[in-house]
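hiii so um. not sure if this is the right channel but i have a protein structure encoded as tokens and i wanna go backwards to a sequence. like what aa goes where. can anyone help
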């Protein structure tokens, strides 16, 4: 399994011949464009920075997951739950709809918490989660979790591996990452361009923090 960050809250997940684009930005969204095609596209919040499905379309259009529900495609199981987010809310709007997801591939469950503004989850989500092996959690993004809140969510879910996202594409991102790593006691952790691990090694990790550079 391989993870790479592509700026903002965009992550590419690859396992075998399956590629998943998590929150790919649309062209002209004002963030770094992506240059890869995907089999599955997952959207946390329906805003231009995260729903650029056409940007990851290759020979075929990817299977799109952008709302709560249960999905299955190419051996990947995904379940989504609706939440509210302060991210992207405009004038006259306090919050927007968002979705958090549990994605299971090759026996590894990845929880995508992008969009969360509070370190809490719907009861039905907590009831469904048996284990979280890898947590993608925002930090440094206005309207999303800050470092202490991200740590609180991680403490609740007890993932084997935590990956902060979002700091790469925001003003003050380096400082936000520093605060995040301080909360997790990982102040000396250095970013890597690409991270890969076997499913069994992910399950055997214990609270490891992985920092991806965009």
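sure thing!! here u go:
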């Amino acid at each position: 399994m391989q993870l790479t960050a592509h700026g903002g809250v965009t992550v590419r997940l690859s396992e075998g011949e399956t590629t998943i684009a998590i929150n790919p930005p649309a062209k002209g969204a004002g963030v770094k464009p992506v240059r890869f095609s995907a089999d599955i596209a997952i959207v946390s919040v329906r805003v231009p920075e995260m729903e650029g499905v056409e940007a990851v379309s290759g020979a075929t259009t990817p299977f799109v997951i952008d709302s709560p529900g249960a999905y299955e495609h190419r051996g990947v199981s995904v379940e989504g739950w609706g939440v509210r987010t302060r991210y992207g809310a405009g004038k006259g709007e306090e919050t927007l709809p968002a979705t958090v997801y549990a994605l299971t591939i090759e026996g590894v469950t990845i929880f995508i918490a992008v969009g969360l503004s509070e370190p809490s989850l719907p009861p039905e989500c907590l009831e469904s989660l048996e284990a979280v092996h890898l947590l993608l959690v925002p930090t440094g993004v206005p309207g999303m979790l800050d470092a202490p809140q991200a740590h609180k969510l991680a403490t609740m879910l007890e993932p084997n591996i935590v990956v902060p996202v979002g700091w790469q594409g925001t003003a003050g991102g380096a400082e936000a990452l520093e605060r995040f790593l301080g909360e997790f006691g990982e102040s000396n952790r250095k970013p890597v361009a690409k991270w890969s691990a076997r499913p069994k090694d992910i399950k055997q990790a214990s609270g490891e923090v992985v920092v991806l550079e965009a």
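oh and The helical segments are 123-128, 147-157, 173-183, 199-204.
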